[in-house]
Amino acid sequence: MLQKLIGVLIFSGILFSQTTANPQFSIVGDLVMDQLQKDPNLSSSGIEIAVQGYVNPFARADVYLHKHNDDSPIELEEAVITVERGLPFGLGLRAGKFRPDLGKINKDHAHLFPFIEAPKGISMVLGEEFYTATGLEVNWLMPLPWYSNLSIGYFNSDISDHDHGKNVSDHIDYDHEGGDSNDGHIDEEHDDGEKQLKGSSARWSHFIDLNEVNHFEFGTSYYVDHEKSFGGADFKYKWRPNKYRSLTLQGEVIQFELGDKHEEKTVHPKEVLTAGYLLVNFQFNKAWNVGVMGDFWQFDLADIHNMDPSIFIGFSPVEESAVLRIRIGQVANDHEGYDKKHLKTTAQLIWSLGPHKPHRY
Amino acid sequence: MRKLFLILSILSICFGKVRVVTSTTDLADIVKSIGGDHVTVISIARGNQDPHYIEVLPSYMIKVRKADLYFMVGMELDLWAKQVIDGSRNQKIEVVDCSVEIEKMEIPAGTVDASMGDIHRFGNPHYWLDPRNGILIAQLIAEKLTKAEPRNSDIFQQNLNAFNHQLDKAILDWQNRYTNLSGKKLIFYHNSWPYFSNRFGLETVEFLEPKPGITPSPAKLNRIIQRIKSDKIEVIASESYFSDRVPKFIASKTKVKTVKLAQSVGAIEGADSYIHLFETNLKILSKAFGVEHD
């Protein structure tokens, strides 16, 4: 009901705004070339359609639709009204279906990353396409001398409501040496029929100008629902001496208390998933950037862990409207276990029509 | 008692000032000239940055949070300013588009799309590079400052008159001293200079960018090299934020001179005010063309 009401509000907002100006339409498409070194495969993740514009002098609306490259119907990715001016005390508001302000990269669309695939560890917490939910989020730009923003959100679905991709949990085994199978009860017959699927999120982020060309930002995030919770911390340092040169160092870590289930598999009630990534990205001229990323995750009690390093390269020949990204990295085979790795090379061409760009980080 | 008087005086000075943020240093310098001690002004873009592409940093929103006025270039040059202003959550700020009174050049006819490069639908937005347009900008700034702080209207008007007088005098002086630049052919890197060229009689024969915002290809560079040789073009001028690599490569193949000009206040040494920006650019060009005035 809430979802429908918000949908009607956003739709009517956009409709009324048509009286003065049309919203901006954009399309982002891609082509992915996977497993380039042995079994090349061409695919596309489909297209993203963005409709964006001001509803009135105080608020704007952003609608993102995704059409996957298959027979599935068009999916509503986000439909959100954002009130940025007009509320007292430096408050802002987002309402609708959107990506909550939770962690460093949850808010961003995947085509904005310098890398191709989202870090596996973060995907295991937030879902393959990250956490999107219907609800409300209040943001407070705190009256401090530096940029400090506190966001608190309440949503009608929790993070388990999302596709978490490949079943890492299948490899969880508490009987192995070093496991702690007796320290708690594992309920195999968990009934989640009556679950209240509500989630709440909070994030406090800061941005500090060290000087004209050096910037540092950091934040902490917290999420809780009826059975799970996680806390996270992130940072980003950027040195940008001129238009075409920059160095970014960015990292994030999340500790996820799983409750007693993860990816439909029963886990130890005290199990904790620790996930994170660290990346360095260097833009060395107008068109090129190169970087390295380490992506890790670990189930503490089950004592399984994984670390996948990768190199990524980005090439933007014509400003921001087309980007070629290449990733060369080590990946685990989900079926064989996480001690068997192979090298995978992936290339992705992203293009855009309109103002919503696939620009680099 | 004296201390109380001092505190009150300081408070009245602080609170009586109009807080202004501008997109570019050129607008900030004109605001300073008109507002004097009665304004505080901050520019978001630095002089040596390309105003088309400013990475929106959250710290900019803090700069705008308590501002009374925001002066933007407009004509879709500083589209990023909207994101800064929205993010600041400042409800009382007045946003002023300084292009409203400008006679625009190069308004594209017909459909505009990305095949034409980074073209601006409402015309070439580098209008501040004609000093005559500086007078129109100053007039608008004085009106808005007066509206924000009517108690200082006389001061703003006096400062406006002084600025206009100084700029009028300088324009007359430049047109006399740099008359030898009139008709000189040159190549620019990006199409930032139609207003400047129009004012000082320069003839732009080519751009290094094949289309606005597009990096020159080897084929394009080859054509330019041939043209420089055949038409005896003497100078390539570029904005301060572009790399020297392409102009220097062309210079190595021809006898062309390469220079960097100030596209904004603070872009290069000497261009430390709106008036000095023109003086510096004209000096650099006259030296490059070998028509220096004593």
Would you kindly provide a written description of the structure presented here, covering whatever features stand out?
The complex is a heterodimer of chains A (361) and B (294). The longest helix of chain A has 16 residues, at 2-17. Chain A is built from two helices and 19 strands. Mean pLDDT of chain A is 82; it is low at 177-193. Chain A has helices spanning 2-17, 120-126; strands spanning 24-34, 41-43, 47-54, 59-67, 75-83, 91-98, 133-141, 147-155, 199-209, 214-225, 229-242, 245-257, 261-262, 265-266, 272-283, 288-299, 304-315, 322-333, 337-353. In chain A, the strands form two sheets. In chain A, strands 1-3-4-5-6-7-8-9-10-11-12-15-16-17-18-19 form a 16-stranded antiparallel barrel. A two-stranded antiparallel sheet of chain A has the order 13-14. Chain B has helices at residues 2-16, 25-35, 58-65, 80-88, 131-148, 153-177, 194-200, 218-231, 245-253, 274-289; strands at 18-22, 39-43, 69-72, 94-97, 185-188, 203-207, 235-239, 257-261. In chain B, helix 2 packs across helix 5 (131-148), helix 3 (58-65) packs across helix 4 (80-88) and helix 5 runs antiparallel to helix 6 (153-177). Chains A and B meet through strand 9 of A and helix 3 and helix 4 of B.
What are the SSEs and their pairings?
The complex is a heterodimer of chains A (361) and B (294).
Chain A: H1 2-17, E1 24-34, E2 41-43, E3 47-54, E4 59-67, E5 75-83, E6 91-98, H2 120-126, E7 133-141, E8 147-155, E9 199-209, E10 214-225, E11 229-242, E12 245-257, E13 261-262, E14 265-266, E15 272-283, E16 288-299, E17 304-315, E18 322-333, E19 337-353
Chain B: H1 2-16, E1 18-22, H2 25-35, E2 39-43, H3 58-65, E3 69-72, H4 80-88, E4 94-97, H5 131-148, H6 153-177, E5 185-188, H7 194-200, E6 203-207, H8 218-231, E7 235-239, H9 245-253, E8 257-261, H10 274-289
Parallel strand pairs in B: 1-2, 1-3, 3-4, 5-6, 5-7, 7-8
Helix pairs in contact in B: 2-5, 2-6, 3-4, 5-6
- What is the first-to-last residue Cα distance of chain A? 37 Å
Q: Secondary-structure element order of chain B, as H and E?
A: HEHEHEHEHHEHEHEHEH
Q: Provide a count of the helices of chain A.
A: 2
Using the alpha-carbon principal axes, give the shape of chain A: globular
Most strands sheet of chain A = 16 strands, antiparallel, barrel
Physical arrangement of strands within the biggest beta sheet of chain A:
1-3-4-5-6-7-8-9-10-11-12-15-16-17-18-19
Mean pLDDT of chain B: 91
Q: Please describe the biggest sheet of chain B, giving its number of strands, its sense, and whether it closes into a barrel.
A: 4 strands, parallel
What order do the helices and strands of chain A follow? HEEEEEEHEEEEEEEEEEEEE
Task: Estimate the strand proportion of chain B.
Answer: 5-15%
Count of discrete alpha- or pi-helical segments spanning 4 or more residues of chain B: 10
| Biggest interface pair, counts | A-B, 31 and 26 residues
Low-confidence stretches of chain A: 177-193
Helix content of chain A: under 10%
Structural class of chain A: mainly beta
State the distance separating the first and last CA atoms of chain B.
59 Å
Strand content of chain A: over 45%
Helix content of chain B: 40-55%
